[in-house]
Write a structure and sequence with these properties.
The complex is a heterodimer of chains A (509) and B (334). With 509 residues, chain A is mostly helical. Chain A has helices at 3-13, 16-34, 40-51, 56-81, 90-101, 105-138, 143-154, 156-160, 165-179, 204-226, 231-236, 244-253, 255-270, 276-290, 302-325, 332-343, 352-355, 357-386, 393-412, 415-433, 439-461, 467-470, 472-508; strands spanning 182-183, 189-190. In chain A, helix 10 (204-226) packs across helix 20. The longest helix of chain A has 37 residues, at 472-508. Chain B is of the alpha/beta class and 334 residues long. In chain B, the strands form two sheets. Chain B has a six-stranded mixed beta sheet with strand order 2-1-3-10-4-11, sandwiched between helices. Classes of the chains: A mainly alpha (509), B alpha/beta (334). At the A-B interface, helix 3, strand 1, helix 16, helix 19 and helix 21 of A face helix 1, helix 2, helix 3, strand 7 and helix 8 of B.
Chain lengths: 509, 334
């Protein structure tokens, strides 16, 4: 690592035009991230043509800004409205929204922002110091290892189920089932029921918007009908200012959580098949297992927000590892960035470190600056953003409904996706009424296709099933998966017993 | 309070409208079929059936940018990815044949039909023009090359003929699937004797090569350059009529005694029934763009070659290609 190159990169990025580019990028990213249905990937694609006229480093800086901003922006709607802005902030809702309901929205947002920023920094530092080593290690992850890792991630369904394990498993299976619709990894069309649009399967975003945004909005409409306004807004009218001291205390208490979640996010980000969507689930689960007050998770525990937001932002640093060191994009956003570089005549590949040292170092610097921009912009915007909860639901609900629908359409330019949103909105609303948790569905849908593709690949390479158990990394994850499942079942049983006892006591009294 | 709400609502509306405008320009009002004399009087939507950032996407976006000024209208590249490129192709097939919705694609269209993913092919469209050709380069990992002393396609064919196991990365039903199958067939090897491993696109294939999980893959110069330079990927032969100026030391497969050549031919198709004048206008605009030296240079940097063919010639070209694929189809199914 040549220090002069790093300095040169710093000088390049700290130029006012560059800083403005990054800030614009971050702002666009935050906006795209906080609107359900719009994603940073979409924003990066929209920014793609603008980079034609910029020099490669500036174009890259713009895209990195959007990337980091977008990874963070999802927390805003997740915490304030209970609707995840992006798939990578589904988990933020678990504890963020309950905190808002308890009148602690500003504190929750503050924790979310701090975690995002710290996650970004840790991701960038890991990328800078350990990038090439991690890249080599990640190559040890063949289809067997990724299969086992995903299997491990799927056991989280049990943890996400809340009180009823059966309902959670049912929801998880439903998600997996939905994931099998479309073309199989070997090219056969399955479960399309003769409808041609189904041949491509369901993309997670419209399903997510339907399940989370639409179903929440439906129940909001129900509430509007019930309450003659004014009643619930009263609870929400509290402090708009961030309780800085409180947030800092929370962050200090969760310091190990930040580190652990960021490292998990960073590592998962660099695996070719997984991404921010699975990273936040895994670190949430880990945070919960390591925490002393597990029961409070899902009811407004700051640790839940910390785990989710620090891991999904650390993914950025991780996702750049294979891109820079191997020339392999970790996700669609990275693929677009590589596309922009190719248009400028820079071919990413293992040689990028040697041929473009300043460019590579500029990436680290741009990530760090974007982190700072996230902190500044979101802190400044916060007083305005928290006011969203003051807007009467009669106005808010249709606006979000409108935006989410447009977002679902804009992603793949398919009208059919809008119908998916509505269908899953109704399904989600009904399931919610039946007490079936929704997050296992989305977990199954996101992870199922990867699980299947990796399994197919494993068997295409070698027909023997024993490799899953003889390869050490794969075996480790399988053992972890088993352990995680047993652990959660044990926990749920204990909890159920407690509730039963509590009910008994109540009855007795 | 009221004021704030109004501001909020109008901002939301603005954002939504902006998003609509940026991505769905062409789709909003394609129902009108009022005369073709003033074509194009609104933006033309170029559907790219792949996710952004890939080879096909980058090439079409680049050329479209140059063609806009000759067309006198904005060209809006629109990604509609999914289901081996059939989501986008189906959308264009069913779109109004008014020239405002066209498809940027390559052979994958025909392979998808012949491998049974869709029930339509080139004949369900009106060809507009052929844009570029990209030669395929069958390549193997350095480790595999050193271990078995394989330096070219002939060595590889002999290796497979001797009954050895060869693990090959591919994307099912895509053009690299056809190239390797057709190449093996032309060399007298049953394409089904290879051990295929399926990936979504080329990027994960490179990862699998670097990790020595697969022995080889069919890549192209643009995406493989970094690996060729570093030596982690060994190019075995050029599947083209001539050697590639960027890789002059790599012989064509014909030079190696295998009578086979095919390039990835990217071109534009319009829905069946698009008026001939409209097809002509689009084709001419792209022709002029492809004649610009600056664009030609940029295309070459991407490992492809400008290869403009007007409508009729393109049609014949597609028919020939389709017939060849039809013959090979039974050997491509597993």
């Amino acid at each position: 690592m040549d220090i002069s190159m790093v300095m040169e990169a710093f000088q390049g990025i700290l130029h006012p035009t560059m800083l403005i580019t990054i800030f614009i990028g971050v702002l666009v990213g935050i906006i795209a991230g906080c609107i359900p249905g719009f994603t940073f990937t979409m924003a990066i694609i929209l920014a793609f043509p603008f980079t034609f006229g910029m020099d490669p480093v500036q174009g890259l800086a713009l895209m990195i800004g959007i990337y980091i901003g977008g990874l963070s922006g999802g927390l805003i709607s997740g915490i304030l409205l209970g609707i995840p802005g992006t798939p990578s902030s589904v988990v933020t809702v678990f504890d963020g929204y309950p905190m808002t309901q308890q009148g602690q929205s500003a504190r929750a947002l503050g924790i979310g922002i701090m975690s995002s920023v710290l996650g970004t920094f840790i991701g960038a530092i890991v990328l800078f110091l350990l990038g090439p080593i991690i890249a080599k290690f990640s190559l040890l992850f063949g289809p067997w290892e990724i299969f086992s890792l995903i299997l491990f991630a799927l056991t989280l369904v049990a943890g996400l189920s809340g009180a009823s394990l059966a309902k959670g498993l049912l929801a998880g299976c439903l998600g997996l089932l939905i994931g099998t619709i479309g073309i199989s990894p070997t090219g056969q069309v399955r479960f399309d029921f003769g409808i041609s649009q189904l041949s491509s399967g369901f993309s997670p975003i419209p399903v997510l918007i339907g399940l989370f945004a639409l179903s929440t909005l439906f129940s909001n409409i129900e509430e509007i009908k019930k309450s003659v306004a004014g009643k619930d807004t009263a609870i929400l009218k509290q402090q708009v200012k961030i309780p800085y001291l409180q947030v800092l205390k929370d962050m200090y208490r969760e310091k190990w959580n930040v580190l652990r979640s960021s490292l998990i996010g960073c590592f998962i980000g660099c695996l070719p098949a997984a991404g921010a969507e699975s990273a936040n689930f895994i670190s949430y689960d880990q945070a919960k297992k390591f925490s002393k007050d597990k029961e409070r998770f899902g009811k407004g525990h700051p640790g839940g927000i910390v785990a989710s937001e620090s891991s999904n932002n650390a993914v950025a640093g991780g996702a750049f590892i294979p891109t820079i060191t191997l020339g392999i994009p970790g996700d669609v956003a990275q693929a677009v960035m590589i596309g922009a570089l190719i248009l400028h005549g820079i071919t990413p590949g293992p040689g990028l470190f040697h041929t473009q040292p300043i460019l590579v170092n500029s990436i680290y610097v741009a990530i760090i600056i974007s982190g700072v921009a996230v902190l500044l912009l979101q802190t400044l915007l916060l007083p305005i953003l928290t006011r969203i909860t003051f807007i009467p639901k009669e106005f808010l609900v249709p606006s979000i409904l409108f935006l989410s629908t447009v977002g679902a359409f804009a992603l793949n330019n398919q009208i059919f996706d809008i119908w998916i949103v509505f269908a899953f909105g109704i399904i989600g609303f009904l399931l919610m009424k039946m007490g079936v948790p929704l997050s296992p569905i989305i977990l199954g849908l996101i992870l199922g296709p990867t699980l299947e593709a990796e399994m197919t690949r494993a068997f295409q390479m070698d027909t023997s099933i024993s490799l899953f158990f003889t390869r050490p990394i794969s075996l480790t994850f399988i053992i972890l998966a088993l352990g995680s499942f047993v652990f959660t079942v044990f926990q749920v049983n204990k909890q159920n017993k407690k509730t039963v006892e509590a009910i008994d006591i109540k009855k007795g009294a | 309070m009221k004021k704030m709400m109004l501001v909020f609502l109008s901002i939301m509306l603005l954002i939504a409208l902006a998003a609509c405008g940026s991505s769905s320009n062409g789709a909003s009002s394609q129902s009108n079929s009022e005369g073709t004399s003033n074509f194009p009087d609104k933006p033309v939507k170029l559907v790219i059936p792949y996710p952004p950032g890939g080879g096909t996407d980058v090439l079409f976006r680049l050329v479209a940018q140059y063609a806009e000024k000759h067309l006198g209208q904005t060209i809006v590249p629109t990604n509609m990815a999914g289901a081996t490129a059939t989501v986008g192709s189906r959308f264009v097939k069913d779109a109004d044949p008014d020239g405002y919705t066209v498809l940027g694609i390559h052979q994958v269209m025909a392979t998808a039909q012949h491998t049974g993913v869709v029930d339509y092919g080139f004949s369900s469209f009106d060809p507009v023009f052929l844009m570029t050709s990209t030669p395929h380069i069958p390549s193997i990992s350095k480790a595999f090359s050193e271990k078995h002393g394989i330096k070219n396609v002939t060595d590889l064919v002999n290796y497979v003929k001797a009954g050895n196991k060869l693990t090959w990365a591919y994307t099912v039903g895509s053009e690299d699937h056809y190239t390797i199958a057709a190449l093996m067939d032309a060399a007298g090897v049953d394409p089904r004797s290879l051990n295929y491993v399926s990936y979504d696109g080329t990027a994960p294939q490179y990862a699998a090569i670097l990790a020595n999980q697969v022995d080889g893959m069919t890549g192209d110069y643009a995406s493989g350059k970094g690996y060729f330079d570093e030596g982690t990927l060994v190019p075995l032969g050029m599947v083209d009529a001539e050697r590639n100026p960027f890789l002059p030391e790599v012989p064509t497969v014909k030079e190696q005694g295998i009578d086979f050549e095919v390039t990835v031919d990217r071109g534009v198709l319009a829905p069946k029934g698009t008026p001939a004048e409209v097809v002509e206008i689009i084709s001419e605009a792209f022709k002029k763009a492809l004649e610009e030296p600056e664009l030609q240079e940029k295309i070459k940097e991407l490992g492809s070659f400008p290869n403009y063919k007007a409508t009729e010639e393109y049609k014949t070209h597609l028919e020939e290609l389709d017939a060849k694929m039809g013959e090979l189809a039974p050997k491509m199914k597993f």
